[in-house]
Design brief:
The complex is a heterodimer of chains A (113) and B (115).
Chain A: E1 4-7, E2 10-14, E3 19-25, E4 30-38, E5 45-51, E6 56-59, E7 62-67, E8 72-77, E9 86-94, E10 100-103, E11 107-112
Parallel strand pairs in A: 2-11
Antiparallel strand pairs in A: 1-3, 3-8, 4-5, 4-9, 6-7, 7-8, 9-10, 9-11
Chain B: E1 5-7, E2 10-13, E3 19-24, E4 31-37, E5 43-50, E6 53-57, E7 64-68, E8 74-78, E9 87-94, E10 105-106, E11 110-114
Parallel strand pairs in B: 2-11
Antiparallel strand pairs in B: 1-3, 3-8, 4-5, 4-9, 5-6, 7-8, 9-10, 9-11
Classes of the chains: A mainly beta (113), B mainly beta (115).
Chain lengths: 113, 115
Amino acid sequence: KNQVEQSPQSLIILEGKNCTLQCNYTVSPFSNLRWYKQDTGRGPVSLTIMTFSENTKSNGRYTATLDADTKQSSLHITASQLSDSASYICVVITSGGSYIPTFGRGTSLIVHP
Amino acid sequence: EAGVTQSPTHLIKTRGQQATLRCSPISGHTSVYWYQQALGLGLQFLLWYDEGEERNRGNFPPRFSGRQFPNYSSELNVNALELEDSALYLCASSLETNTGKDTQYFGPGTRLTVL
């Protein structure tokens, strides 16, 4: 069964600190992995999309890594800001000619001043 | 450029009724995706439409259906509403290039409450 597990479930950090969120998956066959940021009451916003051959992708202060061999991804947030408080969702897309996503439950990040 | 829009913002129905949710994609986008986000659960994929055709659907019963119009807008219909259908319904759009790798842009969602 295709699964995406995210950890930690929730995280509290101080403004200015770095943090790393984890995503482990058992989805097969693999097409791409996406990280989204979802503010409370809003729709998700795409942060990164990585294919099998991509190890690292950055979007401003957000850097995602992918290890296709161990089926693990991480999202690193540098110099956190209050606006980074949100839910971060990992999604793995199955290949095979159609769009079949498997979502993680998300990590809830709270950044305190 | 206008983003993805959804209507209504909130919808309250009673069990057994039907709900219709609407989505307008970003101009130029041909693909529309529907998702359900129930409280305490992650996002779940409902339906994918492209060029007016249903391309794929998630693991939901047939009472969840929809369509895409010639202008690429879309509606989601939920028949015979059940209490557990209460959720945030999100619509996303993308430029579909058959790669499955296009960025999806989400709307603000419709909050459906079933009493």
